[in-house]
Here is the input.
Amino acid sequence: MSAPKLSYAAASILLAVGNDYRYGFDIMDCTGLPSGTVYPALRRLEEGRLVNAEWEHDSIARRDQRPTRKYYAITRSGEAVLEMALKRYPLLERIAPELRQNVRD
Amino acid sequence: MIPLPCRLVIAVAAWIVPKSKRSEWKHEWHAELWHRAEAGTGPRELLDCARGAFRDAIWFLQNERKRYGFDLFRHPLRTELVFLGAAILISAISGALTAPRTMYANAGRLVTVSHASGFAGGRDSMFRRKYVALVRLESESLEDLTIYRPVREKTPGLLVSRNFLPMFGASPLLGRGFNNGDPDNVAIISEDFWHQQFHSDRRVIGASALINNSQYIIIGVMPRRFWFISEKLRFYAPLDPSPSTVGFVGLLAPGQTAQDAGAELGRISGEVDSRSLSKAIEAQPLVRDSRLLEMLFGAIAAFGFALLGTAFLAIKRLGGTRYTLVLGTRIAIVLLGLGFLRLTELSLTGPYTAYSLFHVWIYLLICFAATSLLIIDHRGRCLVCLAKLRMPAPIGVWSSQILDQPVTEYVCPAGHGALVIAGTGNTPDHWTVLDETWQDLFAHTDQ
Here is the structure.
């Protein structure tokens, strides 16, 4: 079965998730895409098992007195598809190292 | 703290998300907005973010449709109740449930008077002019009255006394009503006549027109919504003194009822040389509130068609009591909703459409179509859980498909059973309960 071909927006979102932007609105900020694009794309990526979604532990949220958040993480197959997408979209490939740097900072 | 507009947006969008995912979906959006608000994002930006929830919710809906197919009646009975609620709301908003709409300002006080015609129990609204003059002089229950005489010629119309329009509280769309000083050859035409004969020319006022071989000067145009006796009337002209019989409409004095007026008019008629009149005079309100009658008609139609639907299932020997009762209830609820919508339509269009046979037949046809659609939908549902049956599969070997009638088998997505529907109408549908060996196949189904 051939790997899914991602749109530019979906590839940007997957790149963001792959670089530790784990929450929906953080991905929005990073990619500059609106919430109406980011969230449906995240659902599709999750359905295609390219990302995993998990709720953080209740105790963490309770300790910080805030609601629990759902965070996203890239899967192995997601990484493989991302690699292919970066080859398709050279601009994304160029900004990928900057993205990693931003997260480390 | 999430601003109220954002919370409202999420609450509304949540209705689109399938029920099984709704709670988690809402939590995710609330959490994200909360964190965004805590980070100092302004209310306008938060609202922009929140609006994306609609597209996210629609994704869930489309995804579910891809998986399970589109089912308008995903929740039978609930969908029908929503329709009934919407129909009642529309009726309430349009005012159909409160006071009936009427084009007469004095509707509650206007009465028509009739007497027994002496022919097969019929009634006649024409009286001798002498009697009407006496009523005008002596009646205490009627504050005023206006007289009229129909013109039954090529162009139907009405000859009326000059106080006709003021008594109804109606005024022309164009021009003016009758004045005491007007000659007999003035006329007020109907809006339809104005469109047909004068092509809606606003210069019609003061123009001359030949109506029924008589020349008239047009002084006004009555709006289409004004209705008296018949919607076919094309003109109104002053009544000349010659007719010996006229009809009349009375304006009840304050505190008087139509029954009071009828009794008094009967007494007055005793003074006229017509004894038979005095026993049979009746005064009826000109505008009758037929809403109760219309609702009764709608309820009878709903009950009748519900019986039709349940009889159909009985003939097909399909399903148990619960399955049959659910169909009957669905039909009754939908048709009650249609009854409310009909009430709304009648209140907006006017009184004469209610009695139009064509109108009634159209309504019954719509009821029949709605019943048929519901029967077709219900027949394709599981007899146990009422979920839409899936996976149609032709049954039988190839040769028997040619020699025998074709059949199709549908399966309940929850594994309750399979329904075999014959292609021809003569064979009853056949329901087979699936045993536990099939349950594993449906264990993952998200129902």
Remarks:
- Residues 7 and 85 of chain A are 9 Å apart (CA to CA).
- Strands of chain A lie at 51-55, 70-74.
